[in-house]
Amino acid sequence: MLTVEKIGGTSMSALHQVIDNIVLYNKTGAELYNRVFVVSAFSGVTNILLENKKTKAPGVYQKLAAHEDFRAELNAVGQHLKELNKQYEPLGLNLVQADAMVDTTMQTALNYLEGAVTMLASGYLNEGILLAAREILASLGETHSAYVLSSILKQKGINAHFLDLAGLTDARALTISERIKDAFSTIDLNSCVVIATGYAKGTEGIMREFDRGYSEVTFSKIAEVLKPQEAIIHKEYHLSTADPGLVGIENVRPVGHTNYDIADQLADVGMEAIHPKAAKPLEMAGIHLRIKNTFEPEHPGTLITKGYVSNIKRVEVITGTDKQLMVDIYDPLMTGNVGSDLRIMQAFYNHGISYTYKVTSANSISIVIWENDLKQELIDELQQNFERVTTEPVAMVCLLGSNMDQPGLLAKSAAGLAKADINILSAGVAKGKVNIQFVVAKDQFKAAIIALNQAVG
Ligand SMILES: Nc1ncnc2c1ncn2[C@@H]1O[C@H](COP(=O)(O)OP(=O)(O)O)[C@@H](O)[C@H]1O
Ligand SMILES: N[C@@H](CC(=O)OP(=O)(O)O)C(=O)O
Question: Which PANTHER family match (predicted)?
């Protein structure tokens, strides 16, 4: 059975478990092969190459983009990669070869970046030059981690193939998919295990289209090309019936089976089992996706398939986010005035703002967006056309399920929230009933998730 498997950065940093629990687990001989592992950089490496994904602390790229001296930072990254090499020497990594690879790669990158700085000084095409610099820097982390894992596996006598999709010294103008097809055209998957860089170079620029989290896109594009029996994402936790960090690990269980629609609903409130843009090609190709926990290899994890519908009535996941904002538009002339909603949606469209929830009454429309997406220009435009426009930070809590609709579910959910003294600011469910949404006060998010998990989890 051919599988294409993605290993995220947090899991990669537990390299010993990656080798024991993922690559070698329950497999010997030929069973080891016919698998492609798409690996992310070791945890934190891309942060120091670009910028910290959460704190935005500048990495090499941000220094370069700010016309500051980036060379010390780039050198520090090289030193960090060598420290990681030393950390993985006990696993069988040949330190001399691995450090030499770091030196060569970093020197090549520096040569490119010196050229970029020279070009930036000219003031021509800055955007394109900065994007190229971002692509080059991003690629370094995955080139390193894929090299390290494939080298260790070779040292163990396994026929591991280091598949360099980063193409640092490959000047061919190929799209990502073209590069993938070209790279796999000479590989006999039955006789090797492929370790592919999570960064893939392409004329479209993976950073321009997807930016951080790009490994999942490379993983998806490889699966599109190879059409495996199963695509697998290895994470450091199970996709659970609720956030264990909120309700307690003892009050959740792994989601055994769900579908791609539910995965999209999860992503809509920020819980990405897989990025929707990476999931769609898999869903459309009918490829099954499995989310596995790196630290529980014996557990089958969560299987996500296109047409799955639970054979019993149940809520599959309780999730949500407290990072939302409710925009309420009121106007006494709205009732019966065809086109009010169109004008509102046009304003949202004009400012490129999508929403996660919308309800209407005779004279008002309430729309929930991500709080970070709010633009004052949108509010200004709406206020020119409607009597009153208000905004309020809120939390959204959701019940997700492929087959959860039954009399009393809404009542039990609302009763659970009421029992916790949580006021429902707004509630809604679309016809498919795969997602029942409650809008509550921002500071009642955690209490609402706990209350719903107790009531219907
Ligand atoms: N239904 C859920 N199942 C599992 N984890 C969840 C769920 N909902 C929220 N979480 C939280 O999401 C965290 C992982 O979020 P993710 O965005 O994948 O990683 P990170 O934000 O650390 O990069 C988990 O550690 C967990 O606390
Ligand atoms: N290492 C890259 C790519 C990636 O997808 O990483 P992860 O799988 O850890 O999200 C980043 O941090 O953006």
Answer: ASPARTATE KINASE, ASPARTOKINASE
